[in-house]
Amino acid sequence: MEVIFVFTLIILLLIIAGKYITLAVRDVTKRKQTERELIESEHRYRSLVEVSPKAILVFQENHIIFANQAAMKLFGAVNEQDLLGKSIFEFIHDEDRVELINNLTRLSKHENVAIREYRFHTLDGRTIFVDSVGTNIMFNGQPALMTVGSDVTEKKSLQEQIKMSEQRYKSLFDYHSDAVYSLDLAGRFTSANGVCETLSGYSPQELLDKNFSELIHEEDLAETIRIFHLTTQDGGSQQNNRFRLKRKNGDSIHLDTTTIPIIVDGQTVGMYGIAKDITEQIKNQEMIQHLAYHDYLTGLPNRNMLESLLANETIPIEKVAILFIDLDRFKIINDTLGHSMGDLLLKRVAERLKASLTEKDLIFRQGGDEFIVILTDSDRERAGAAANQILEALSTPYKLNTTEVYTSPSIGISLAQEDGETVATLIKHADFAMYQAKKAGKKTYRYYSCIKYEGDFDPLTMELELHKALKQKELFLHYQPKVNLQTGKMFGAEALLRWNHSKRGMVSPERFIPVAEESGLIIPIGEWVLSQACSQNKKWQENGLPPIVISVNLSARQFSHASIVATVEKILGETGLEPQYLELEITESMTFDIEHTISTLHELKKLGVLISIDDFGTGFSSLNYLKQFPVDTLKIDQSFVRELNHNHDVTIVKTIISMAHHLQLKVVAEGIETREQLVFLQQHDCDEGQGYFFSKPLSAEEFNKVWTRIERLVVKKKDA
């Protein structure tokens, strides 16, 4: 019985032990599986951390104990050892140190900290911006802080650039000296700066309720709408336009605008506009344009207008009669009573001329006391009747203020078909006939076709004598000095042609040059003048005188000749004169063929010579093309300098000087005769001048003696 019990007990014990062994085996297996899972989890975690694009740092007591690849790259580390053990404060920017300390303290207390932006210094010397967030973790069984960050340096830079661009745009928009605005595709204002209010009278807010078309002058609206569509249509482009703006107070001003399409994602959504007030500029242009074509004193069309009509052939030649009028005794009246009374007399003469003729008749002030009348539908009988009417009208006494003045006209008449085939020829012949009327006793008229050339040069005889003059060396040059008005130094001289006839003595250039021009003799004469002037200038230089610029006038026929450029080049080569010491002077009569003028001037400029426009202000026919001409100098006509005691002449001279300087041109004043004229021109920054105040035209030998004397005549501006 006992044996059975013991056996049974043993069996029970074995059964219980087996169960415990099985349980132990199972427990060990499960623990190992858990350990494997933990190892795999840690491996996955480390892999994720290593390949993460975010920079991950783990540090204890502010020292780095772990850094992934992104963190090493962020801080410019070659390997992990470059970072491990280093304090995070070795890298933080000084200005961000306090904020980092505060946020790490809060993290250590398990407080939430939002993503922050810090500046760090890297191992390779850069300064970077990092967006960072931190959390508490256990690392190797110890509490630690982990931060995850992204390099936002480039983003920060872009943001700064965008911010700066926005600030620049705002500054440009708000503080631009011109009006800046924007329109949508319907033409409504979407923005406007303060200058827009100055120009329009409407506040920027008021403009936002308007369409641009409401502000445009009716005559300019169609063109302005066309420009708007060209700017805003698909593939639109920058456009320029000028129009009149209707201001809030009802006035109009002239604007010059540039419009630019606003393109967003490849689509045009509106346009920007930049507008400048050019009202004063337009007024100045209109004034200059009017001065170019009208006499400033009488308001009559001037010589320039006449020549423009001739160039465009707008005056029919078939039944034209030309009356060339000169006032008798005008110089005596002008010298005795003064220029102001002389000017008043000329105004009265112009009024009487207009009253004595029909609206179809054309009246021009040629200059001085000379007038030209063109009768467009006339014959000998009507021309004579008109001349008698003018004689009667102009011979009646004039009441000038309290003074009664007497004068009369001398009139020369030329008729189409009888006296010439062009209006220009008829004018020249009428001029000649006028001088014959003066010789006949004044206060009369003469027909060109009836003149007998008794004892005087007729054009044909003068032409024949000019042929001989070249061969017999009767032609010679005088030189008039040109002076720098600020320093007093002589910088150049103008070569002037003279004719000492073997029997008749000195012949005026005003008489023989037109004949030379018409006959074609001006071509060989002009070539001789160029050669003589260049040779003399070279001789002065070789004799030790300071280099100066010699100026030579080109006639219209000479300038238009096909060989003019080759002739100038040949003469420079033959004489050895360097081209910068030769200046060629042209006049308004040479500029009717604009294309030829521009082409010829550019060819001459290629040679290196200087170009000057002579007698500027007396009627420059191509004023609108002035900016296209490659010229260096404008010469103010002596008629304006002579009349500087009159307000209108002062305004004209100041305007010409200002305009020339804005075009980067020098200004030379002709006909300076008094110190008062010199001082005025100095005060208004005229560059250079010539005239009898400095010296009359001199022979080459006399010219050598005036250098130092002329310089003493000029009071330097700084010493004045």
Care to describe what's here?
- With 720 residues, the protein is of the alpha+beta class.
- The chain has 5 domains: 1-47; 52-150, Beta-Lactamase, CATH 3.30.450; 176-277, Beta-Lactamase; 283-450, Reverse transcriptase/Diguanylate cyclase domain (Alpha-Beta Plaits), CATH 3.30.70.270; 478-715, EAL domain (TIM Barrel, Alpha-Beta Barrel).
- The protein is built from 24 helices and 26 strands.
- The strands form 5 sheets. Strands 18-19-21-22-23-24-25-26 form an 8-stranded mixed β-barrel, surrounded by 5 helices. It has a 5-stranded antiparallel beta sheet with strand order 2-1-5-4-3. A 5-stranded antiparallel beta sheet has the order 7-6-10-9-8, with helices on both faces.
- Helix 18 (564-575) packs parallel to helix 19.
- It is elongated, with a radius of gyration of 47 Å.
- The chain starts with a helix and ends in a 7-residue tail after the last helix.
Using brief descriptors, characterize the structure shown.
8-stranded mixed beta barrel; Beta-Lactamase; alpha+beta; 44% helix; 26 strands; disordered N terminus; 720 residues; 5-stranded antiparallel beta sheet; 5 domains
What is the strand and helix layout of this fold?
Elements: H1 2-51, E1 55-60, E2 63-67, H2 69-75, H3 97-108, E3 116-121, E4 127-139, E5 142-151, H4 153-175, E6 179-184, E7 189-192, H5 194-200, H6 204-207, H7 218-232, E8 239-246, E9 252-264, E10 267-277, H8 279-293, H9 303-311, E11 321-328, H10 330-337, H11 339-356, E12 362-367, E13 370-375, H12 380-395, E14 398-400, E15 403-405, E16 408-415, H13 423-439, E17 445-447, H14 459-471, E18 475-484, E19 490-501, E20 505-507, H15 509-519, H16 522-542, E21 549-553, H17 556-560, H18 564-575, E22 582-586, H19 594-607, E23 610-616, E24 633-636, H20 638-642, H21 647-662, E25 666-669, H22 675-683, E26 688-689, H23 700-703, H24 707-713
Parallel strand pairs: 16-17, 19-21, 21-22, 22-23, 23-24, 24-25, 25-26
Antiparallel strand pairs: 1-2, 1-5, 3-4, 4-5, 6-7, 6-10, 8-9, 9-10, 11-13, 11-16, 12-13, 14-15, 18-19, 18-26, 19-20
Helix pairs in contact: 10-11, 11-12, 14-15, 16-18, 18-19
